[in-house]
Amino acid sequence: MFEILLLLVTGLVAGLLNAVAGGGTFLTFPALVWVGVPPVSANATATLAALPGYLSSAWAFRGDMRAEGSLGLRAIVVVSALGSVLGALLLIVTPGETFTGIVPWLLLVATILFAAGPRLLRLARGAGLGQAGPAVSAAAILAVSVYGGYFNGGLGIMLLATFGLLGFVNLHGMNGLKSALSAVLSVVSTAAFVTAGLIAWEQAVVMSAACALGGFIGARQSRRIVRTDLLRTFVTAVGLVMTVLFFAL
């Protein structure tokens, strides 16, 4: 019962965080490992569990999403799907012991990127990177999508920074597109993970339901949240703690 409650609470909070600031994987991935799911399977299951939250969040932001920059929405989706396939295949062929050794470093990098997210966006805009052409934009989306297909942690802020590169300026639209692309990445990656038998279904069902509820609530309430910096600080602290714990294991 305690494990079910843990999965429900972490799933709900992760859905809220993914909709508002990102970083939900910092909670769901360690929770799955804690209840006994092997790291590679936990990463795959966390990706699946986040999917309903991404979909509900994208639905709540559906009126804000607009095409901006040098790539159309269809091209962005296609490139994202391709990258997620490559990332998922890379995870599938990664041995469990190797992935266990990589996880602390992935968490560390994701935490640093998440903490530096607002500054990265300001630098991207200040440097005039919004003028990037279609080829550079597609390459950036592809790189982030490969990362997202391999490891979901920190994906949200990486997508937001990339949207800054593409020339997006509407924050609500960026949040909506972030959720929509994260959903695309999760669908494609999950299909590969299901085929490879990596999903822990009992845990995934419980966590997915909670993520869906959290994602919808988070998206609906995001416009009322003034101090998103406090959320970012909380998520960064969680990421640092989890990084230290995984290095210590």
Could you describe the 3D structure shown?
- This protein has helices at 2-20, 25-34, 39-60, 73-92, 96-115, 117-126, 134-150, 155-166, 171-195, 201-221, 228-248.
- It has 249 residues and is mostly helical.
- It has one domain (2-248).
- The mean pLDDT is 83.
Spell out the blueprint of helices and strands:
Elements: H1 2-20, H2 25-34, H3 39-60, H4 73-92, H5 96-115, H6 117-126, H7 134-150, H8 155-166, H9 171-195, H10 201-221, H11 228-248
Helix pairs in contact: 1-2, 1-3, 1-10, 2-3, 3-9, 3-10, 4-7, 4-9, 5-11, 6-8, 7-8, 7-9, 8-9
Organism: Halovulum marinum
Membrane topology: Multi-pass membrane protein
Protein name: Probable membrane transporter protein
Oligomer: single chain
The CA-CA distance between the termini, in Å, is 25 Å
Helix content: over 70%
Radius of gyration: 17 Å
Give the number of DSSP strands.
0
* Structural class based on helices, strands and sheet pairing: mainly alpha
How does the major sheet shape up? none
State the shape: globular
SSE pattern, N- to C-terminal: HHHHHHHHHHH
Q: How many separate domains make up the residues?
A: 1
Strand content of the residues, in percent?
under 5%
What is the average of the pLDDT values? 83
Low-confidence stretches: none
The DSSP helix count reads 11
